[in-house]
């Protein structure tokens, strides 16, 4: 079984992330979604919450596993038996950073490929940071994330 690993902070998961998971499933037998602890970032949701959001969102897809991870990505790739790393590209500015990371990962694990996927046009502008900001300011984010995420963002807004 050829599996790919899709890493990210997923704070929180968006429908753009889910779109990439579905695209990856067309190329690989399975996808491991690795939710980073985000220790170098300030996250709105705990790693446990982010893992739960994702597990709920992918429960009907089949061949998708969601795990938390911390440390070197290539270590997690090796532990899961993945043969590729999935990375999303929305815009040209994403490429510079992702290219650098892909080359470093190749240096650390020569047998692991990085596969860049673009989301559907309807999600090309979407990222978690922008969606959180819009939600917390009272904007409409329906259809941009799973319902559990939309509810959690609404609760966060109410508690402010």
Plain-language structure description:
- With about 160 residues, this protein is an alpha/beta fold.
- It is about 45% helix and about 20% strand.
- It contains six helices and five strands.
- It has helices at about 15-25, 45-60, 75-80, 90-110, 130-135, 145-160; strands at about 5-10, 30-35, 65-70, 85-90, 115.
- The chain has a five-stranded parallel beta sheet, with helices on both faces.
- α1 links the parallel β1 and β2.
- The longest helix has 17 residues, at about 90-110.
- It is globular, with a radius of gyration of 15 Å.
Tell me the layout of helices and strands.
Elements: E1 3-8, H1 15-27, E2 30-36, H2 47-58, E3 64-69, H3 73-80, E4 84-88, H4 92-108, E5 113-117, H5 128-136, H6 147-158
Parallel strand pairs: 1-2, 1-4, 2-3, 4-5
In what range is the share of β-strand residues?
15-25%
The strand order across the widest sheet is 3-2-1-4-5
Helix segment tally: 6
Question: What class would the helix/strand composition place it in?
Answer: alpha/beta
Distance, first to last CA: 46 Å
Summed up:
By secondary structure, the protein is an alpha/beta fold.
Properties at a glance:
44% helix; 160 residues; alpha/beta
């Amino acid at each position: 079984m050829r599996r790919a690993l899709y890493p990210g902070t997923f704070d929180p998961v968006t429908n753009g992330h889910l779109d990439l998971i579905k695209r990856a499933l067309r190329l690989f037998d399975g996808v491991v979604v690795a939710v980073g602890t985000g220790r170098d970032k300030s996250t709105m949701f705990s790693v446990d919450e982010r893992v739960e959001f994702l597990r709920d969102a992918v429960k009907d897809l089949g061949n998708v596993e969601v795990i938390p991870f911390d440390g070197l990505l290539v270590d997690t790739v090796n532990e899961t038996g993945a043969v590729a790393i999935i990375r999303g590209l929305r815009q040209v500015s994403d490429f510079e950073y992702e290219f650098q990371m892909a080359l470093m990962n190749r240096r650390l694990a020569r047998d692991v490929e990085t596969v860049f996927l673009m989301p559907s046009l309807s999600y090309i502008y979407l990222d978690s940071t922008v969606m959180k900001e819009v939600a917390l300011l009272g904007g409409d984010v329906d259809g941009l994330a799973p319902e559990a995420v939309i509810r959690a963002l609404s609760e966060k807004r109410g508690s402010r």
